[in-house]
Design brief:
single chain, 521 residues, alpha/beta, Cytidine Deaminase, domain 2, eleven-stranded mixed β-sheet, five-stranded parallel β-sheet, elongated
Length: 521
C-alpha cells in the first residue's frame, strides 16, 4: 500500500445531511477540485453558487425512478475502484477518469424507524447507491478518500492543497465501514421488529455511537457506552444536569434504579415512588402519598446501604426532597423533572450527578451479556404478578394483596437467590429487608430478616416474605416461622411443593403461588 499523499482533483458529493456542505464545497472549488454531484445535493451547491458537474454527464444516463437510480453505474464505480499505478492503462482504454474523494452520508433510516413509519416508508428509506459509493471508496482507500460525517470535513479543508495522506484515508475508511455496518444492522433490527414473529435479533452495536466512560467496573478497566440508534430517550443518551462524568458502574446502577421504579409506577400510577439501588440491588423501595414520604420510607429500609446509593423518583423532585438529602451522600439522583429550588440545593454538591430519567419502554427491551466466545441475549423480565393463588389453609387478607404485588415487583429486581420482606405503611408500602445474591435461599431469608430487625422491625407478623423462585425444601418455611413470618409469596413449581404447603399449614402460615419465576443473575 502506498504511503504518499494523493491530490484531490475530482470529488463526488452526495449527502443526505447537508451540514457544513457549503463551506466544504467552496473550499474544494477554490482549490481547483471538480465537484460531481447528484439531485438534492447538486441543487444545494448551485444555490450556494458552487459550480458542480451533474452526475449524468459522467454516467451518460439520467437520474431515474424518483432518484433511486443515479450513482450506480460502471463509470462511477470504476472511477472509485481502479488501482492507481496498476490499472491506469485499462482505465484510460475504458475512458474512466479517477474520482479521488467521495463525500457521502446515507438516508436517515434510523430517524424514519423512530417515527413509527409504515413498512413501505421504511423500505423507501433504505439507501443503496450511497452504501455502494462508501464501500467502494473505503475499499480502495489506498488511492481514494471517503468522508461520511460533516465532523470530518476539517480534515479535508485544513491543508493548503487539496490532498490526503494515507493515514487520513485509512482512518476515514474505518469510519466508513463502521457507518455502513451500523446502517445495515439498523435495517435488519428494525425489519425484525416489523416481522412480528420469533425472528432472531440483530443488535446494533456501532463504534459510531460509542462513548468512552471514565473506567469500567474497576479503574484499570476501559469501558464504553453504546447508544441504541432507535432510542433517543434511553439512559445511554442522558447527559447529567450536573456532576462528574458517569462510569460503567454508575450507568448500571442508574439503569437498575430506573427499571425498578418504572415497574412500580405501572401499578401504582397515582402514587409517589422512590427506589434506592446499591450494587444493582434495591436496598430501599417505597410507594407513598408524597415524594418526601416515599424517600423517608425507602431510606429507612436500609439507612446504612443507602449511603452512597443511586436514587430514582417517579415524580418531580422538589425543594423539600432536596433539603432532606442535603446532609446525605448519594452518587446519582434520577427523576422525570427537578424544581429550580431543588437544583439550586443540589448544585452545592459538585460530585452529585443529576439525571432526567428515561420515559417508559415502547417495546420489550433486549438484554445482552457477553460470554466466552459470544453473547447470550434475552428479553427483559417485564412480568407483573397480579395473580396470587392461595395454597394454604390460612388465607391472605384482602389488604395484603397490594403489599404482595408491591413486593413481587421489588423482588424481581434483586439478584438471585432473592428474598424480600415488605410491609404496608401508613401511606403505602415499603421494603423493610432483603437478602440477595446467595447460592443458598436459607441464607437470603436470614439476611432479609436480619436487615429488617436492624432497621427496627422486630415484629414481622404483618410483613410479607417474597421469594423470586420456589422453595426447594420445607426447611425454608421452618426458618421463616421461627422469625415470626406469617405471609409468604412464591412462584411454586417445586417437586416439594406439597411438603412446603404442609409445613405452612403446620405453622399457621399463609402462602400464595404466583406461577411466575423471577430469577435475576
Amino acid at each position: 500500500m502506498p504511503h504518499n499523499s494523493y491530490p484531490i482533483q475530482r470529488a463526488l458529493i452526495s449527502v443526505s445531511d447537508k451540514t457544513g456542505l457549503d463551506d466544504l464545497g467552496r473550499n474544494l472549488h477554490a482549490k481547483g477540485v471538480e465537484i460531481i454531484s447528484t439531485g438534492g445535493t447538486r441543487k444545494y451547491l448551485e444555490e450556494h453558487q458552487i459550480p458542480c458537474t451533474p452526475i449524468e454527464e459522467v454516467t451518460g444516463n439520467p437520474e431515474a425512478f424518483d432518484g433511486r437510480m443515479k450513482t450506480l453505474s460502471f463509470e462511477i464505480c470504476s472511477a472509485l475502484l481502479f488501482q492507481r499505478g496498476k490499472d491506469d492503462a485499462e482505465a484510460e482504454k475504458l475512458g474512466i477518469s479517477p474520482i479521488d474523494l467521495v463525500v457521502c452520508n446515507l438516508y436517515p433510516f434510523e430517524n424514519t424507524a423512530r417515527s413509527d413509519a409504515e413498512y413501505d416508508e421504511l423500505i423507501e428509506n433504505i439507501d443503496i447507491g450511497g452504501v455502494t459509493l462508501i464501500r467502494a471508496a473505503a475499499k480502495n482507500h489506498a488511492h481514494v478518500c471517503i468522508c461520511t460525517d460533516p465532523a470530518q470535513y476539517p480534515r479535508l479543508t485544513e491543508n493548503e492543497k487539496a490532498e490526503t495522506d494515507i493515514q487520513t484515508r485509512k482512518e476515514l475508511a474505518l469510519h466508513a465501514f463502521r457507518h455502513t455496518a451500523r446502517y445495515d444492522a439498523a435495517i435488519s433490527n428494525r425489519l425484525e421488529i416489523t416481522a412480528d414473529n420469533d425472528a432472531l435479533y440483530t443488535p446494533v452495536l456501532s463504534a459510531e455511537t460509542a462513548t468512552a466512560l471514565r473506567y469500567g467496573e474497576n479503574p484499570h478497566q476501559n469501558a464504553w457506552v453504546y447508544q441504541d440508534p432507535f432510542s433517543e430517550n434511553g439512559l445511554a443518551h442522558r447527559i447529567p444536569l450536573q456532576g462528574k462524568a458517569l462510569s460503567y458502574n454508575n450507568l448500571l446502577d442508574a439503569d437498575a434504579a430506573w427499571r425498578c421504579t418504572y415497574d412500580l409506577s405501572q401499578v401504582f400510577q397515582d402514587r409517589h415512588i422512590v427506589t434506592i439501588i446499591k450494587h444493582l440491588n434495591p436496598c430501599g423501595a417505597s410507594v407513598s402519598s408524597s415524594a418526601l414520604q416515599a424517600l423517608e420510607d425507602a431510606w429507612a429500609g436500609d439507612p446504612v446501604s443507602s449511603f452512597g446509593g443511586i436514587l430514582c423518583f417517579s415524580t418531580e423532585v422538589t425543594e423539600d426532597v432536596a433539603a432532606w438529602l442535603d446532609d446525605k451522600f448519594i452518587e446519582i439522583i434520577l427523576a422525570p423533572s427537578f424544581s429550580k429550588s431543588a437544583l439550586d440545593i443540589f448544585s452545592k454538591k459538585k460530585n452529585l450527578r443529576v439525571l432526567i430519567s428515561p420515559e417508559g419502554e415502547h417495546s420489550t427491551p433486549i438484554m445482552i451479556r457477553s460470554i466466552s466466545g459470544g453473547w447470550v441475549v434475552q428479553e427483559e423480565d417485564m412480568g407483573e404478578d397480579q395473580s396470587f393463588n392461595i395454597k394454604t389453609d390460612k388465607t391472605f387478607p384482602d389488604e395484603k394483596n397490594m403489599t404482595a404485588e408491591f413486593g413481587t415487583l421489588v423482588t424481581k429486581h434483586l439478584r438471585s437467590n432473592a428474598i424480600a420482606l415488605v410491609q404496608e405503611t401508613e401511606n403505602g408500602f415499603s421494603l423493610i429487608g432483603a437478602g440477595m445474591g446467595n447460592p443458598n435461599r436459607l441464607v437470603s431469608i436470614s439476611q432479609a430478616v436480619s436487615k429488617a430487625r436492624e432497621n427496627g422491625h422486630q415484629d414481622l407478623s404483618e410483613a410479607v416474605l417474597i421469594s423470586d423462585a420456589f422453595f426447594p425444601f420445607a426447611d425454608n418455611i421452618e426458618l421463616a416461622e421461627k422469625d415470626g413470618i406469617r405471609f409468604i409469596v412464591q412462584p411454586g413449581g417445586s417437586i416439594k411443593d406439597d411438603d412446603v404447603i404442609a409445613a405452612c399449614n403446620g405453622n399457621d402460615i399463609a402462602m400464595a403461588f404466583t406461577g411466575r419465576r423471577h430469577f435475576r443473575h
